[in-house]
Amino acid sequence: MVEADEYDPPGAVILHGSGPQGRRGLFEAGLGIAYDPPIPAYASLAEQLALRGFAVLTYDKRSCFAENSAECPQSIDDYPGDYYFISIDDFLEDARMATRTLHETLDQDVIVVGHSQGAMFGALIGADEPGVCGVALLAGATLSLVDTVSGQLNEFADYIESVDPGNPAIADLRMQADEALSVLTQIEAGTYAASAWMGAPTQFWADWIAMQANFHTSLADLDLPVYAAFAGSDFNVGPAHFDQFESWAAMGIPAAATTKMYPEHTHIFVPLTPEPPGHSDTVSGVLVDDLTSWVSAGE
Questions:
Q1: Which of 13, 55, 64, 226 is the most buried (most CB within 10 A)?
Q2: Domain Serine aminopeptidase S33, which positions (predicted)?
Q3: Mean pLDDT of the chain
Q4: Domain architecture of the chain: domains with CATH
Q5: What's the rounded Cα separation, in Å, for the pair 88 and 85?
């Protein structure tokens, strides 16, 4: 038996993707897939890491309220401010404070595990937060936000067209992609006239566009081991993002990168299966084993 004062676990902080995620990361669906029953992806990842000796911190995202997510206990009425104006910088600073809290609690360095939008935060935190010893990027977008949002819709339309050419959803997805490209391009240029798009203030999108545009610079500033995982059945962050990261890594950006593609895995790294419901009910154990080996190799 290991005594409490002898246990020195590696620490890991899980950083959410976009949307009002709770600490468990309950996903009911993703682009092109429905999870039945819903999958608590971050809880699954955290529990598997814990079984391998990690001390893991997950937390409720600032935008997670009972009104928009069944897993969030706090009401919008409890928020000390105007929730509508929660910013991308607020999410970044919350992720930074979570990382710092775990580092100070354990009194040792930790890794940050950023999923999707959280990968962008992870790279920024890893570059300047002294308590971080490694950064894991799970399905992190490498293209601009403009290309990411429009591209994911077009790629999903391409897939549907390849298996069901007459499906009316194809035209709808193309229209949504065109709208996203037009609106986000205008927001980036500062010419978008409306104050909001898709339920979020225009300034939120502008800040996200700018932060994503600096992702390459954030990676270049990283002097830490980086593990970049991409999923082969991911319409949110498709193969073009993997190719872009591979090209950066070949040029030494980031300086110490390990990259892996996980075929037949979804955006939340759940393996697809031939039997119903068509997917596993947990995050891939192969991914967790790979993360564990990567951390061990860097110690």
A1: 13
A2: 41-242
A3: 94
A4: 4-143+211-298 (3.40.50.1820)
A5: 10
